[in-house]
Design brief:
With 231 residues, the protein is of the alpha+beta class. The chain has one domain: Alpha-Beta Complex (Fumarylacetoacetate hydrolase, domain 2), CATH 3.90.850. The chain has helices at residues 95-98, 114-123, 128-131, 145-148, 177-187; strands spanning 13-15, 22-24, 28-31, 52-55, 60-62, 66-68, 76-78, 80-86, 102-109, 112-113, 137-139, 143-144, 155-160, 163-169, 195-197, 205-206, 212-217, 221-228. The strands form five sheets. Strands 4-3-15-8-9-12 form a six-stranded mixed beta sheet. Strands 6-18-17-13-14 form a five-stranded mixed beta sheet, with no helix packed on it. Strands 10-7-16 form a three-stranded antiparallel beta sheet. It is globular, with a radius of gyration of 17 Å. Manganese (II) ion (MN) is lined by residues 30, 79, 81, 110, 197, 199-200. Manganese (II) ion (MN) binds at residues 30, 79, 81, 110, 197, 199-200.
Length: 231
């Protein structure tokens, strides 16, 4: 047994629907732009390949939590996303095998400090400070794919204080789940516990202290998060 100079940090995890067990989180990968605002042309080979960024594993937050308004921003945005939870290791996974590696699905919110992201884009700097901050990856309970199946369509939505903000459909995903898992596994060896946030539909916008976000994906689950006063 290795001895450590400090106590081991807690294992980040997300809830599993209808279970007392939890899903231990290893890493969090997120896809950039992934919904077309219009119906895409069939057989279009000109799609930009998906690109990824990451969040720390301990950025996960359970549904029902209150998250303090984060520092360094005056423009905190919600991005409702389908989350795929990896259950089986894989490197260079072919598309037709990719869904075998998905243990389950959940609904997450990719919280984004949009003002820092705009600045990072302008200055050609990394996105970390805009995307990878404390509590930036709320994720609702996972449903095992054995129960939900692998979703290809279904409403994905988010309200703020009951008012509709985002309303899309998984069928609008430019890169479906299998392509995302396959593409991610080209860059890293995927491992059990990895989460992939799969991108957000149109309608992203700002939230303020006191706001409650509620969102969901039909057939997968829901999430509710309140923004509290800054620390
Ligand atoms: Mn996103």
């Amino acid at each position: 047994m290795t001895d450590f100079v400090l106590p081991l940090p807690p294992t980040p995890s997300v809830a599993v629907a209808s279970s007392t067990e939890r899903f231990a989180v290893r890493r969090i990968f997120c896809v950039g732009r992934n919904y077309a605002a219009h119906v895409r042309e069939l057989g279009n080979d000109e799609r930009d390949p998906p690109f990824f960024f990451t969040k720390p594993a301990d950025a996960v937050v359970d549904s029902g939590a209150e998250i303090p308004y984060p520092p360094l921003t005056a423009n905190l945005h919600h991005e409702i996303e389908l989350v795929a939870a990896i259950g089986k290791p894989g490197f260079r996974i072919p598309r037709d095998k990719a869904l075998d590696h998905v243990w389950g699905y959940g609904v997450g919110i990719d919280l984004t400090r949009r003002d820092l992201q705009d600045e990072a884009k302008k200055m050609a700097r990394p996105w970390d400070w805009s995307k990878a901050f404390d509590r930036s990856a709320p994720c609702g309970p996972l449903i095992p794919a054995a129960k939900s199946g692998h979703p290809q369509k279904g409403r994905i939505w988010l309200t703020v204080n009951g008012e509709a903000r985002q309303d899309g459909d998984l069928s609008e995903l430019i890169w479906p789940i299998a392509d995302i898992v396959s593409a991610c596994s080209e860059a890293v060896e995927l491992q059990p516990g990895d989460l992939i946030f799969t991108g957000t539909p149109a309608g992203v916008g700002a939230v303020l202290a006191g706001d409650t976000m509620a969102g969901g994906v039909d057939g997968i689950g829901t999430i509710e998060i309140t923004i509290g006063q800054p620390k």
